[in-house]
Give the backbone structure.
Amino acid sequence: MVKTAIFASGNGSNFEHIILDIQNKVVNNFNVALLIVDKENCYALKRAEKLGVKSIFIDPKSFDNKNEYETKIINILKEHNVEFLILAGFMRILGGLLLSEYRNKIINIHPSYLPSFKGSNAIKNAFDSKIDKTGVTIHYVNEELDSGKIIYQEYLTIDKSCTLEDLEEKVHKLEHRIFSRTLDKLFKQ
Ligand code: GRF
């Protein structure tokens, strides 16, 4: 059983779906020791409370620099024997300390079919570019934004009548369907 921590900054719907899939035994090869957030009032924290998952808010602003912030995070991860980090809407670029401590052990979900539409606003950018498909990518995190080795990705079609809100909903549904299952397969090996 692989021990993970999930990192989030906002809504936390991916976090919740992963936890529900674990609790309902849809996936069996990993657990989530804790949720780490960088925003004090983010909705992910409320979800954690409801789901009975330990959560910690670590305020980046209370540290002098990124190294000190990440040292604090690493200490907490070590206390919980965390082996892999799952980024699920964590809106912060990781620094060298976390990346070297957890090299090839940090996984992110991105709402586009990479390498298209890296960075924030990926869903809107795909929508605005009027292409007929986009997707979701699950990948390892490295020094370059949204550029690490791809673990799994899936397309979805953008119909002519699709609004931006429809597309956002479609992308999130796809994320919720594939994230925990992809992690489960990965951790089984
Ligand atoms: C998702 O679209 C994910 O791909 C991106 O951030 C969003 C997080 O959504 N990295 P949520 O907080 O899990 O609802």
